[in-house]
Amino acid sequence: MNDLKLPAIDYAALAPMLILFGVACLGVLVEAAVPRARRGLVQVPLGLLGLVAALVFVIAEAGTRKRTAGEAIAIDGPALFLQGAIIVLGVVALLLIAERSLEPGGPFVAQPARPVGSEADRSQAAGEGGATEAYPLVMFALAGMLLFVAANDLLTMFVALEVFSLPLYLLCALARRRRLLSQEAALKYFLLGAYASAFFLFGIALIYGYAGAITFSRIHQAVTAGTGSGVLLFAGLALLAIGLLFKAAAAPFHVWTPDVYQGAPTPITSLMAACTKTAAFGALLRVLYVGFPGATWDFRPIIGVIAILTMLVGAVLAVTQTDMKRLLAYSSIANAGYLLVGVLAMTPEGVSSTLFYLVAYGFTVIAAFAVVTLVRDADGEATHLSRWAGLGRRSPLFAGVFTFLLLAFAGIPLTSGFTSKFAVFGAAFGGGQVWLVVAGVVTSMLLAFPYLRVVVMMWLSEPGESTPSVSVPGAFTSAALVIGVLVTLLLGVLPGPLLDLTTRAGDFVR
Amino acid sequence: MEHTVQFAPATGLLSGMWLLVALPAVSAAVLLLLGRRADRWGHWLGCLSVGAAFVLGLLSFFALRGQENRAVQLNLWEFISAGSFRVDFGLLFDPLSAVFVLLITGVGFLIHVYAVGYMEHDEGRRRFFGYFNLFVAAMLVLVLGNNYVMTFLGWEGVGLASYLLISFWYVRPSAATAGKKAFLMNRVGDAAFVIAIFLLFAQLGTVNFDGVANQVHTLSSGVTLMLGLLLLLGATGKSGQFPLTAWLPDAMEGPTPVSALIHAATMVTGGVYLIARSNFIFTANSTLQLVVVSVGALTLLIGAIIGCAKDDIKRVLAWSTVSQIGYMFLGVGLGGAAYALAIVHLLAHGFFKAGLFLGAGSVMHGMRDQVDIRRFGGLWKYMKITWVTFGLAWLAIIGLPPLSGFFSKEPIIVAAFERKDWTAWLFGIAALLGAGLTAFYMTRLFMLTFHGPKRWTDDIEHPHESPPIMTIPLVLLAVGSVAAGGLMVGPVPKWLTPVLGHEVRGEAVLAHSAITILAIAVTLIGAGLAYLLFRDGTATAPQPAGALVTAARKNLYIDAFNEAVFEKPGIFLTRALVFLDGKGIDGAVNGIAASVGGGSGRLRRLQTGFVRSYAMSMLTGALLVVAAFLAVQYGWFA
Amino acid sequence: MSLSAYVPIIALFALAAAFALFSVGVSQIVGPKRYNRAKLEAYECGIEPSPQPVGGGRFPIKFYLTAMLFIIFDIEIIFLYPWAVTFDALGLFGFVEMILFITTVFIAYAYVWRRGGLEWD
Amino acid sequence: MTLTPEWYLLLAAALFTIGAVGVLIRRNAIVLFMCVELMLNAANLALVTFSRINGTLDGQIIAFFVMVVAAAEVVVGLAIIMSIFRTRRSASVDDSNLLKY
User: How many CB pairs under 8 A join B and C?
Assistant: First the structure.
């Protein structure tokens, strides 16, 4: 028993994750020790500092290609890039989460367990300071995501999946306004998320049965050797893919997305749309490119059909949406389809274009949700589409910003939406997936329609009695908005540097 | 086409060509972002920026003449670079883009000035100028880009601006519908264009014009055909050509200056530009050329025939635009020397059609926005300047020598007769027929509007001439309509030679002079027929009872003649075409739009809100995915 | 043993799921839906349901909270057993790791304690 | 008849299926949730069985982790269900139906 070999652990490579977990734990202690009124003041700088420190370590590790902690974690180009992306997007989303000037007490409710409509609930709606537990929860979620994209075996991936999912379920339930919707969103997200992770886990079991191991390199060896039962392999791969596609919001596993995006507090929605999507596609890339490239010819047609279905569902259903957050949710579903097109190129360009797309989309979607948090009336955010009519007259600046973001979603040139779509379609074309490109181009043409409908409505309608006002954003929201819009523009006009970076970062370690 | 195409780097004045795009773009941003603060002076800023761009365009044009290599490019920065693939944000100023720049900024400037007067009472004037400048900037990007991605960038930009401007009077449901239809039809074309770009990228690894031009001969003919057809579909979408015609006439719901600038002079000629720019692809495949020629010939006839049956002044002009662009497609499809002829016609058309639209706008301005030509008549006395300028543009479009339409259209007809085989007769006669029909419907329009008895609605007593700010552009455009063709038909093809290749003329199946005489003859016949039929107004309009009792007999006689000789078959043909257009193509587009909307509405119901039904859809999906994997594994699909 | 022997398992899995989906779907469609008061009442051996206690016969939330806290701390300790078994082999490394693990559990405990999760009233 | 490991796999598949279908046909959120737990445990059973078949310990270790993760999931889930229950006085998932279309 004494010759047990301890795994070598490269602490510098793990530092970003360790820092974030540490900050999250510190955040919990702050909740326990610091008086209520001052918790927010401590939590926000703590969170931001932690993220910055983690980012410093990610940058310092640039160029590393190794597996550590007994092959459980891979630190390579895609992992570092995705970790950096998640951290930066997390910072921007955290700015939205920390905004307290739009609504007295911030976007979260003080005591989520209080029955809706009770005396205590009415008093807390009136402006009691919101739950600061949100900050450690966000930190746990982000730390889980960092681990998720670096996971080099299926167990680590599963644990990371749960580590970032569980806080998100809770965060969904914390909205200050429309609490019934918020709770319902949390319940749906939770039940369906647990359901999907059960599929994922059974997939792990089958793959373990097939390959006799759970690290991606061993799985790859087993797949290329072609020994073992194909049934176990393919059923396992299918179930694994389902778990990941659920988080990525691909059809038909997208059903939770519109409901949850609509019900969750808007800053959390932006976190999910940007960071969760990045993490999910990061993991999907690793599973498909590192673990199962030997089965490319088998899974590509099937996931390709899913990609087309996803693009279609997102584009078609976005046409008749009447709620802004749901519209953005369907747009996010369609974008999952475009990302899948990039993933399925199964070439180095496929990896780099997908990475690029994730960053570009993340910034745009956070900025879009930031605008959603600004359009308010006495009851909180006014998300119904009809309420946005004539917004261009009332607030040309924010309507202009939102128009720009919508044009970016529609893939109009000179926005990041165009360059990123161009990159993934180009990669897929280069990978021989013409059918996916044609479907992608056609649906993106279709998808432009709902966006332009909103643009026309904002600019060409008269503001009515019910047109809500646009609140003056606080410093945090302004910062998030400016960052999101600038990056969207920059990546549309000058995408070269980031494309270079993704090209250099596109190499997985096996 | 084995000579290599090379672009020289920009120096001196030409290195400032980015300003051409930047001026209107910055102005648009200022107008749209400043909001009401810019209401007072916004329209002047809009005019100024386009005027400045025109001056700069002129200077650049002269600078280019002094260059040895008349194709100058300016790579501003690297736009997209992924692996071996690289797209620059680059501009190209060569003879072809130079003439387009002058047309866009020159005619654009006049129309901007006109719009200051036309939109005076519209409270959205500042926004209007903002979109208008946005359009000019995008159009300049379209014609100045040095690769297909840049062209596409401008392509999307003009589409967006056009959509916003068509829907500008959103309160009219018809305007909103028209905007939607224009958008959808353009998207079909855009999708084809994007796929063509990817095809180029996948096959040649470059999308730069020089790179593609130098390597296009390495492509197999199947790929070239595919590429050309995709580009052609893109071009038909933007230019309102068959089969994507229907949006253009509906787009007339926008304000008249929009119709003049976007839907007559510039944007809709984008398709012609695309094909002329891609001449190396189209010349490489004769099947492709035949398709382009057929599209052009078919559209020019469709447009002309339907133009005969419309009573809305702007719709007649819109169908006329469709028909004239058909001539241009015919020209670019014929290849060789006809490329340049198509561009000449495009430029001449830019002048006289802009003049016609602005004249129509002036008439509407004086007649309380009446658009029905059966409700005009005798206006020449009341709006003299409009009458004269409109008349000159009318003579120009029907191709009467020595006005510009003659010099630009007649050579295309000749070129059609120069085809190698029997198709010479087919396309030559189609082009001749089109000329006759053009003369007919334009004369009808002119006579019914300005001459004959007054048939005004009761609320109009004194139609008035438009203010000078509107008439001055009219006069300038009329001068252009008269002179442009004659002045351009010689030098422009020579000027364009570096881009479009040397002039290689074939033998026409008829003598050149015979064709010229024939062309003039059909024009005169068409015009004369229309003059005879419509000099005393028209009876097809519901007239105030008793007003025309004395003339009734004569009118009836004309009607009978009219009906027997022309209208019966004409109406039949027109109805057939309108049916095809309304139910076929149009129906398809509306059908797609409706089915997307309806499908969306139905699919939405699947999102029941019950968590268990979501779980059901997930489980079903999971079973299908697992089953599909196993099916692939066991080769059940193979 | 050939691994293709698992084919029946998968087939059974698929069949069972398909059958279940089928029966659920069919019963939704063809099954009669006639509810009356009696059918909706709780079944208590054919006699009138006894009156519910005040508050709907439900436990105070406190029970759930305490039970939840118990479960989570109880299960966390699962990791102590393998460590205890190989304590010698893991040596100092394992000891430090375990200290860290217990620290995190204690952080959670401190939170629960400070925020009143352990107070019964 | 000998009790080969395959029988355990069969049992795992059956349990997983029962859980997966149970989610569809039950209304009570807590029961739904128990069905999900059943699925997780079915996966655990499969893991342990494969561990035995493959002769490696990995499967059993995974099962340990899964149990802990499942417990955490239980706690989070119960917290969410409880907060909804306190407002609605009902644990039926079909009552939560405000977000749709």
Answer: 13
* C-beta contacts of D58-61 below 8 A and 24+ residues apart: D58/A155, D58/A208, D58/A213, D58/A214, D59/A205, D59/A208, D61/A155
Residue B380 domain boundaries = 286-530
Is pLDDT above 60 for B454? yes
Q: Would B133 be classed as within a structural domain?
A: no
Contact (Cβ atoms closer than 8 angstroms) between residue A222 and residue A211: yes
Which residue on chain A is closest to B176 by alpha carbon?
A: A456
Neighbours of chain D (3+ CB pairs under 8 A): A, B, C
* Residue-range domain boundaries for chain A: 11-505
Q: What ipTM was estimated for this complex? A: 0.83
DSSP H helix total and E strand total for chain A: 21, 5
Q: Is B29 part of any domain?
A: no
Q: Where are the domains of chain C?
A: 56-121
pLDDT in tens, B242-291: 777 777 877 787 788 888 888 878 888 888 899 988 888 888 888 888 89
How confident is residue A355, by pLDDT bands cut at 50, 70 and 90? Answer: very high
Give dist(CA A65, CA A152) in Å, integer: 13
Number of domains in chain B: 3
Task: Decide if B465 is inside a domain.
Answer: yes
Assess C115–A contact: CB distance below 8 Å, yes or no. Answer: yes
* Same-domain check for residues B341 and B489: yes
Instruction: Enumerate the residues of chain D whose CB falls inside 8 A of the CB of residue A190.
Output: 76-77, 80
Q: What is the pLDDT of residue B594?
A: 65
Residue B417 and residue B318 share a domain: yes
Say how many C-beta atoms besides its own lie within 10 A of residue D35's C-beta.
23
Same domain, B493 and B562: no
Higher pLDDT: C31 or B637? It is: C31
User: What is the rounded CA–CA span in Å between residue D67 and residue D47?
Assistant: 12
As a whole number, mean pLDDT of residues B226-255 equals 84
Q: How many CB atoms lie within 10 A of CB B63?
A: 20
**Whether residues B381 and B501 fall in one domain:** yes
Cβ-nearest to D75 among C71, C79, C82: C71
Interchain CB distance below 8 Å, D25 and C71: no
- pLDDT class of B571 with cuts at 50, 70, 90: low
In chain B, which among 589-628 make CB contacts under 8 A with chain D?
604-605, 607-612, 615-616, 619
Q: Domain locations in chain D? A: 27-90
Q: pLDDT band at A144, cuts 50/70/90?
A: very high
DSSP string, A472-488: PP-HHHHHHHHHHHHHH
Better-predicted residue by pLDDT, A288 or A460: A288
Please indicate, yes or no, whether residues B345 and B494 belong to a single structural domain of this protein: yes
Q: Are B571 and B309 in contact (CB under 8 A)?
A: yes
State pTM to two decimals.
0.84
State the Cα–Cα distance between residues A402 and A43, nearest whole angstrom. 30
pLDDT tens figures, A327-347: 999 999 999 999 999 999 888
Neighbors of chain C by Cβ distance (3+ pairs < 8 Å): A, B, D
* Banded model confidence at residue B557, pLDDT cuts 50, 70, 90: very low
Same domain, B476 and B346: yes
Strands B8-9 and A380-381: what pairing?
Answer: unpaired
Which residues neighbour B524 within 8 Å (Cβ) at sequence distance 6 or greater?
B439
Instruction: Answer yes or no: do B459 and B495 share one domain.
Output: yes
Low-confidence winner among A275-284, A313-322, B71-80, D4-13 (lowest mean pLDDT): B71-80
Nearest chain D CA: its distance from A74 CA (Å): 19
Model pLDDT, residue A246: 93
Q: Is B401 in the same domain as B547? A: no
Q: Which option is the CATH number for C56-121: 1.10.150.20, 1.10.1670.40, 3.30.40.10, 1.20.58.1610?
A: 1.20.58.1610
Residue B76 lies in a domain: no
